[in-house]
Amino acid sequence: MSATAAPVLAPPPAAGARRGRRRSTLLRDPVAVAAGLFILGLVAVAVLAPWIAPYSPSAGSILSGNEGISSAHWLGTDSFGRDLLSRLIFGARLSLLGPALIIAISTLVGATLAIAAAWIGGWPDQVVSRVADILFAFPGLIFAMIAVSMFGAGLIAPVIALSISYTPYLMRVVRAAAIQQRALPYVSACYVEGLPAWKICLRHLLPNVAPILLVQATLSFGYALVDLAAISYLGLGVQPPAAEWGLMVSEGQSSILAGHPQESLAAGVMIILTVVAFNLLGDRLASRQGMELA
Amino acid sequence: MIPITTVSGLTVAGLIAGDVVVEQAFGINGLGSFLVQSALDKDFASVQAVALILVTAFVVINVIVDLWSLVLDPRLRARAA
Question: Alpha helix locations (H) across chain A?
Answer without folding.
Answer: 2-9, 13-28, 30-47, 49-52, 84-120, 122-136, 140-151, 156-182, 185-193, 197-200, 206-233, 245-256, 262-288
